[in-house]
Design brief:
By secondary structure, the protein is mainly alpha-helical. The chain is built from four helices and two strands. Helices cover 43% and strands 8% of the residues. The chain is globular and about 40 Å long.
Length: 72
């Protein structure tokens, strides 16, 4: 079985929630489980519908939610 390398994408959902004073519960249409997976950087894929809902709820762009870490 091949070893899966860790991804270099970092989710900034916690920072955006804190900056806007929004709770996870306020992000309707997205399950708390999915939000937790994103917040903890364990997501392997994100649906466009999820990205759209997050950006609309947080009044942000996709680039505000995620960044690409430098290579080690």
């Amino acid at each position: 079985m091949p070893v899966e390398e860790p991804h270099r994408i970092t989710c900034h959902l916690d920072d955006l929630l804190a900056a806007r004073g929004v709770t996870l519960a306020a992000l309707s249409g997205i399950t708390v489980v999915n939000l937790s997976i994103l917040k903890n950087n364990r997501a392997r894929a994100v649906r466009f519908s999820t990205l759209t809902a997050l950006c609309e709820a947080l009044d942000c762009e996709v680039g505000d939610l995620f960044s690409l870490a430098d290579q080690p």
